[in-house]
Input
Amino acid sequence: MLKKYLLPRLVQYVTVMLIGITMVFIIPRLLPSDPVEHQLSRMTAQGQYLDPAAVEDLRASLEELYGLKGGILQQYITYWKRLLTGNLGPSFAQFPTPVTQLIRTSLPWTIGLLLTSLLLSWLIGTTLGVVAVTYPNSVFAKVAAVLAMGIRPIPYYIMALVLLILFAFVFPIFPMAGGYSMGARMGFNARFIFSLLRHAFLPVTSMVVLEVGGWFLQMRNVASNVVEEEYVSYAEAMGLSRLKIMLHYITRNAIAPQITGLALNLGFVFGGALITEIAFSYPGMGYLLYSAILAGDYNLIMGINIFSIVGVSTAMLVIDLIYPLLDPRVRYQ
Amino acid sequence: MKCVRTVLLLVLVAACLVCSGSAFAADPPRNETLVADILTGRVSNPGNFNFWATWVGNDKGLQQLVIDPLWMADYVTGQMDNVLAKSGPIYNDDFTRLTVHLREGIYWNDGVAFTADDVVYTVELAMATPGFGYNTQFNQNIERVYKTDDYTVVFELKAPNSRFHYNFLDRWGGCRILPKHIFEKAEDPLSFQFNPPVGTGPYRLVEYDVGGYWFLYERREDWDRTATGMLHGMPAPKYVKFMYYGDASKKAMAQISHELDMADLTPESLDVVLSRNPHARGYYDGFPYAELLHPCVTGAAFNTLVPPFDNKEVRWALNLALDAKELAMTAYNGAAAFSVAYIPALLPYYETYYERLEPWLLDYTIEIDGVKHKIYDPTLPFEMAKAAKERGYDVPDTAQEIRKMFGYGWWKHSPDLAEKLLLKNGFTRGRDGRWLLPDGTPWKIEIICLTAATNPSFKWAFAIGNQWQEFGIDVEVRPTDTSNALTESGDYQVVGGQPASEPFGAGIDLYRAFSSFKSEYWKPLGEKLVGHQTRWVSEGLDRVIKAMENTGYDDPSIIDLGIEAAKILIDGQPGVSLASFPGFMGLDTYYWTNYPGGENPYTVPWYHWPNLKFMLPYLQPTGRK
Output
């Protein structure tokens, strides 16, 4: 079992990470933006008096500081040495702030936002999907299907803007921007938690509303095949209740693709949700990554992507490992 | 059932608590708080205030309220304000020594006195720390820095430099003075976070958002021990909050709801704010609403190393094919102050430069096939005023006021002359009327620009592109986030942006605007830029720049040199020198009034400039709760 099932997957896991991490080292260096030039142009564009005579010296000094002198192979080796000690290096655009510090500032917001919306939408969509299949002729099933198909194609930005205008501007119930209010000291206290919930409500709602449709349709499609399987007919013939059939026969057999989808999406959590962050001016990794790309901040781009690579690969590995436990058919194969 | 009811009740209570966030909010009293936008957006490293080492979102209130420079440029008054310095820079005869007298009685916000030790330490630390913003420049220039007493600092320079003090002149940047007693305790000054920031400015940091969206500052109780207090009195708002709401549409929503007092908007969002908030106004209370006089000339720049833009007559033809009035109407609904001479339209520069240049401009001719053509149109500002009136706007009647609003003239719209110039240089029109290059291939111009639709780079690029298109040239305008990178390596034809560098806007010296054209900074295509993005050089301009370097920054003869440089640039026409940067700010007068505006331009009106500290004492509360 260990040799046949676990080992190949572990090798695959390590290989994917090696390739992924190497790619995130190479790709940012192909960008036309360059961290040193970005720093120089920011200095001049934003008013600093920079004698052109000093520019060349400054350029050389920054290249040295940023560790960009020397060949790409040498930089690659340094990068791995640093990475293996858990050091992602300094951000160039905010030198010498460590990349880990920047990620640490943004990651909790992203995880909070995306994890909550993902789990909520998954739970609601999956439940509604299976209920709609179990009770196909109910009004609920029809309404849910219409809503799911009607809401899902709405462009996310429009949905976000509508929510924002309605509930932050016309009816100013929720705030327009930020992650929490002034005076709400960070920590496990009522003021901060309520402030946090209030600020997160619209971003989370916008994502849940649109994502529920996807999960709903996927679950309904899989479950509608399952419901025609003979074991479901036998269960009905045995006189089992619809609830029991739904939970033990339909859901259990239709849930596997949903779990794969969930796990993959969990892995993508680290990349952030740029449009949500921009639409609701909500803190997170998406904006951090976007500004890093614009600034050619190699280390920050690599740092954020490494989280995503590790996240997605680990999610895939975990799925591979727990699949046999969830679905006996895999175990037998 | 009971259980369900309990759960429902709990949900209801939670919902009420969440929705009534105000019950928990601890915002300072709104009528005592000025709320301003963070222009550069969300701050990625909000807890770092060490802006000597890196970019920390310097306009999150740090440069405006907490940290002071020695001097500060005010482009509205044209003055160089003394802040921590008591007087202007004092150079010796050969510009190798600079003496600075410091203001006495200033205290850091932790109660420690500010002295010459702080200035000397700031400079020495910058010189000793690679990575500090001024490390290279100071090491190149300074032989020795020392104090002669607690309030006098002397810089001995390695070579004559009549403008060394510009390093300490804050114009949205400059070497500000750091507190020695704080930084000397820092193990590594480069990674030191400087949190909380200790400054000599009139406010201190109270709280900030770890997500980087807001920062709250409170007026110091000892505000009278700051340069701002000494020079201008007590800043009116007890609190100043900097908040980033998002794009212009969100800022507009916040301003309509009286949540945001000062914001940078687009022309369109300003329109919305003005129509929905009766207390809102622009820089002008009426047309043109925008701030038009800004120390930055905008338009476009040619890459003069790329054919056919390496041909001066082609560059001239492209300028003459433009209709400046139409450009201004299209891009900014007529809100533009023209700057034909690579010098921004700015009140202090009007008298010093434009008044003196205009007779020369009126006589300026270009010769085509032996015929001389006068091409300057001095009537343009008046035509603009007329057009604005026709659109129903109130526009001043006097020539002086009209000039103040729209600047001086620009080039006559002369497509016929442009045509002749191109034909003279071997260009032809194809059967479809589109222009062909001298080698017979279709002429296609690509204009790159920034992606921000609010920026003149974007606005002018599209407006200019349309007009060249109408003139018969295929034009593609390409907004790109890599615009800076492309211009730095010379990988472009035309870029929407600045045809010359920005002067300080304070004083009479234009060295900062023109020195980037020095031929010693020239680089071939593909090599990283040092000088101006046009890569245009001229022996004549080199001579003028050299003469500027040998002349004091405040010597009256510097004006003649500035005029000479402008004439050379006009003649070479490396860009399209169109208009000063038009700024569309929204000002809500619901809680605060007496902002500097077109009718009362007492200082720099922007909240993200360091000059905000000098504006705050003049704001007046309305008393609204």
In short: The mean pLDDT of chain A is 86.
